[in-house]
Amino acid sequence: MASTAFDFEVITPEGHAFRGRVTALRLPGRKGNFGVLARHAPLVGALDAGVLRAKGEDGKEKAFAIGEGFVEVRRGGVRALVDFCNAKGKVDVARAEKAMSRAKERARSRDAKVDHARAEAALKRALARLSTSRLTGLD
Amino acid sequence: MAQGMKELRRRIRSVTSIQKITRAMEMVATTRLRRMQGKAEGARPYADAIKAFSALLAGGAVKLSSPLTTARAKVGRIAVLVISSDRGLCGAYNANVFRKVSAFLGEKKDVPLDLYTLGKKARTHYARRMAIKHAYLDEVEKLGFRRAREIAREMTDLFLKGSEAGGVDEAYVVFTRFVSVGKQVTTVDRLLPITGDAGGAAPNAGDAGAAKPAQASAQILLEPSPQELFDQLMPKSLAMRTFAAMLDSMASEQAARRMAMKAATDAAGEMIGTLTRKYNRARQETITKELLDIVGGAEALA
Question: Within an 8 Å CB–CB cutoff, is residue A105 touching chain B?
């Protein structure tokens, strides 16, 4: 059924990371994951760093690691504005692991100079990349 | 005469090789310029979308504000971020930036300021002239959005501290706006506090597109609240403007370099022409003289 597909694009400051037709989305919202299907009510929401899943018209699901940003659901389609977007195969796992352990250390330290909110954000970004790279059964 | 000809030949050869170099640099600058333009082009959809979001939020019923959009009554200290190039041979590109900075400092001479530099040329230029608060050592060409976001955040931290706590009350960036391949404009932009259409904070965003989202926003679900969205949007908008300033500067640098190298190549071509004419005249003179000698010798024998 063609009517269940809708346009979806992911925009980063470096350009379009994804553009195509999809049938279902799973997004890491600020207040938890949520799904978007065709004819979703118009919405503007904040996104956390996390895993984005998009099911294509061919039924195959794609996974992306995304950074913080926003999503806009309109009648015409869905648009995500994020800091970065790595397709599952393009995640730099070694770098993410390094970032992860660094962020963990910072988040744990009691040093007053450490900005915990920032350390936590870095942790989320690293976690987004790592969990995307570890997903199985999709592209 | 033979001595003069040798000298001319040597000079022609050296100018020719310089021309080869400037022509090569011109071509390199052309490709780099294209790449930078591509990058700037790639950043546009994001910047436009951020603006559209700001307009959408600003068009809502509630008037939104955040610490980042609030101007201080008294400005005790300002931060100025200067974006230059790492390399020279780009005409007046850096000189224009420095001149703009001087003019700006002239306007703000009553306010103490912290200077931040990005690019080797600004660093070395100001190292001998005034105190640099911090010089970012990044290679300008390799700056990405990540880095722009970090720098924007450092500026934000300074701003939020305020001048009384060792921070600043306003932050500016001096960069070169890329208008077209033939036109670049050195610009001073206020990064913080965010005002007017720059961040879309003012609800009177006067363009035609702003009216529509204002009506539509009533039916659009906002999650979380508009205020929370706004608080997340403002730093993004700031990071994007910082990034855009960097991209513009990079493209402008290459455009300036291409122009400078093209002028150098043309000048070298002209010089080769003049030298070649001189050389040919000298050669002709020698030949004439030799012929006269031979003719003279033959006549003497006859």
Answer: no
Same domain, B194 and B80: yes
Q: Is B222 on the interface with A (CB under 8 A)?
A: yes
> Which structural domain range is residue B199 located in?
39-258
Cβ–Cβ < 8 Å for A119, A106? yes
Rounded to the nearest angstrom, the minimum Cα separation between B229 and chain A is 6
- Please report the domains of chain A, with CATH numbers, ordered by start residue: 2-88 (2.60.15.10), 90-134 (1.20.5.440)
Question: Count of residues for chain B?
Answer: 302
Domain count along chain B: 2
Tell me how crowded residue B280 is: count the other CB atoms within 10 A of its CB: 12
| Co-location of B140 and B221 in the same domain | yes
B106: Cβ–Cβ under 8 A, 6 or more apart, which residues?
none
ipTM of the complex: 0.84
Comparison of pLDDT for B18 and B164, the residue scoring more: B18
Characterize the bridge pairing of strands B78-83 and B221-223: unpaired
CA distance B127 to B141: 21
* CA distance linking residue B21 with residue B65, whole number of Å: 54
Out of B222, B223, B240, closest to residue A13 by CB:
B240
- For residue range B98-119, list pLDDT tens digits in order: 999 999 999 998 899 999 999 9
Residues 6+ apart with CB under 8 A from A121: A49, A68
Q: Tell whether A48 is within 8 A of chain B (Cβ).
A: no
> Given CB atoms, is B80 within the 8 Å cutoff of chain A?
no
Q: What single string gives the DSSP state of each residue in B174-230?
A: EEEEEEETTEEEEEEEEEES--HHHHT-STT--SHHHHHHHHHGGGSEEES-HHHHH
Minimal-distance CA residue of chain B relative to A45 = B223
User: Which amino acid would we find at residue A87?
Assistant: A
The predicted pLDDT at position B60 comes to 67
- Which residues of chain B make contact with A43, given a CB cutoff of 8 A? 220-223
What six digits make up the tokens of B93?
A: 């590109």
**Do B59 and B184 fall into the same domain?**
yes
For residue B217, what is the domain's CATH number? Answer: 3.40.1380.10
Q: Which residue of A has its CA nearest to B222?
A: A44
Closest CA to B229 of B10, B98, B62: B62
